[in-house]
Amino acid sequence: MHITIKGQVTIPQNIREKFGFLPHTEVEFVEENGVVVLRKVNSGSSMVKKMLQRMRGRCRGLSTEDIMKLTRS
User: pLDDT class for 46, splitting at 50, 70, 90?
Assistant: First the structure.
């Protein structure tokens, strides 16, 4: 297996089937103890986590209701 010029690799079919890597499945590469691991991500919870990380510490002084109004607009 090799990495293309665009940084792409092909996940072998047996691995895709065994672990449910279907088309449009969101994945992430993470480093764990010096090893790179490919992990399936729940796209909804991943997006929420990223949004919360970006917002952490920025909404001081706003009530929960104020924050909810901002997310609905």
Answer: low
**pLDDT digit string, tens, across residues 12-24:** 999 999 999 998 8
In the 3-class helix/strand/coil scheme, how is the chain assigned residue by residue? CCCCCCCCCCCCHHHHHHHCCCCCCCEEEEEECCEEEEEECCHHHHHHHHHHHHHCCCCCCCCHHHHHHHHHC
Q: Residue ranges per domain, the chain?
A: 13-72
Residue with tokens 């047996």: 14
β-bridge partners, 27: 40
Distance of CA 35 to the CA centre of its chain: 18
- Residue closest to 36 by CA, chosen among 27, 45, 26, 47: 27
